[in-house]
Amino acid sequence: AQSVAQPEDQVNVAEGNPLTVKCTYSVSGNPYLFWYVQYPNRGLQFLLKYITGDNLVKGSYGFEAEFNKSQTSFHLKKPSALVSDSALYFCAVRDSGAGSYQLTFGKGTKLSVIP
Amino acid sequence: NAGVMQNPRHLVRRRGQEARLRCSPMKGHSHVYWYRQLPEEGLKFMVYLQKENIIDESGMPKERFSAEFPKEGPSILRIQQVVRGDSAAYFCASSPPVAGDHNEQFFGPGTRLTVL
């Protein structure tokens, strides 16, 4: 079984400061990891993914994430937060094993960037 | 290239009625996924379909729920005899049929179902 934990329900950060949204995962095989962002009453927008290769993945809107296999983590980061980054962020995992197509999502972390 | 389209965006049903949710994948995508999001929860996988085939329905409730993706037309998620617990946001996602199974899924705006 695969699972995702986002330990923080909410993260508050001042505009211009660096932000981190935490994610840890559990899969039986090798993970495919994703970050999505959801704005109010909207669908999810893809930010970035880790499949293989470089542990630091760069994505949309200046976001990046670091895959750490030993800690089974995939934290989302941004060097300088914007007020417009305020949204709900979801981490998701898929087991790379054959036939594993479903994404398992964390419960989400609400990011509030304070002007 | 239009994104994933879902309709209706909002659907109100009384207990016992049927709900039909439609999803048109992105152009060129032949893989469709349905997820359900309950309040204060993450998305939960329901079903994965390709054209005319259900590939994985391990997340679908055993009764009242069904899904299809016909050769022509949108994918349909059908909920019969709705109950209040079915109230949720239902999201559809699609991905392309290229080699490699690590493609990200592109999500629609969702259908918010309210059961009175």
**Termini separation of chain B (Å)?**
36 Å
Structural class of the secondary structure composition of chain B?
mainly beta
Count up the helices of chain A: 0
Class from secondary-structure proportions of chain A: mainly beta
Describe this structure in words.
The complex is a heterodimer of chains A (115) and B (116). In chain A, the strands form three sheets. In chain A, strands 2, 5, 6, 10, 11 and 12 form a six-stranded mixed β-sheet that branches. By secondary structure, chain A is mainly β. Chain A has no helices and twelve strands. In chain A, 0% of the residues lie in helices and 52% in strands. The model of chain B has no long low-confidence stretch (mean pLDDT 91). The N and C termini of chain B lie far apart (36 Å). Chain B has strands at 5-7, 10-13, 19-24, 31-37, 43-50, 53-56, 65-68, 75-79, 88-95, 106-107, 111-115. By secondary structure, chain B is an all-beta fold. The chains are: A mainly beta (115), B mainly beta (116). Chains A and B meet through strand 5, strand 6, strand 10 and strand 11 of A and strand 4, strand 5 and strand 10 of B.
